[in-house]
Amino acid sequence: MSLLIAEVELRIALARKRLLVLNMLVPLLLVVPVVLGAAPAFHASAVYAVLFMLFGTFGSAIPLVRDAEMGLVGRILQTGIRPGGFLVQRAAAGCTVDAVQLLPALAVATFGSLSLGGFLTTFVIMWASLWIANLLGNIVAGMARSLAETALFAAVTALFMLHFSGVFRTPMPGTFWGIVEAASPFRILHETLLGMSVGASVEGASALIVWAVVLPVLTLVVARPIATSLKAATRQ
User: Fold this and answer.
1) What is the pLDDT of residue 117?
2) Domain of 102?
3) Which site among 1, 34, 58, 87 is 20 to 30 Å from 79 CA-CA?
4) How many domains does the chain have?
């Protein structure tokens, strides 16, 4: 299987050095006040989780719709590249670039709280969560009809997924919402970021793995309708 799309996306991201640096600095500037302000662990972990996942979802959905409006997506798909492969490879490249850009922010957020092994584990969890966020961004892009709609849908989707993952509230175990939280993909990211400060146990790895496997399969299933929607967004 050719990884042409992923390679092209990575090359484009690395070639845009100014944008790459800005995308490193902006999250860092948002994280630093939280760290210096000694925010309570629950609030700080929620801020970090929201920042990281909005970064991934927006960063996937908005550029995809923008490229579709410019006709780039349609021209790429006319070359014979399958829509499913295009979307999955784009998400793979996107989450890798996102993880690199968020690395400084993650380092500052976890400074002094984790060992090297703990930091690397947290980075892998963040990367896997960004993979899911980028795939969700693809689906969001297929439902939107403009950049404004894309931004709205991306924000709502990411925030609802974070809410279900227990970022904004802690449901009682065994209740309906407790079961939803246990099955949510971003739970482990939030609990890892929370656990580095309060030493709480971390759960949710199984849900993250399931989502990381099932969501790309779902993307392949719905890729053709998404591609049709993106082609329809092309500016005349």
Assistant:
1) 83
2) 4-232
3) 58
4) 1
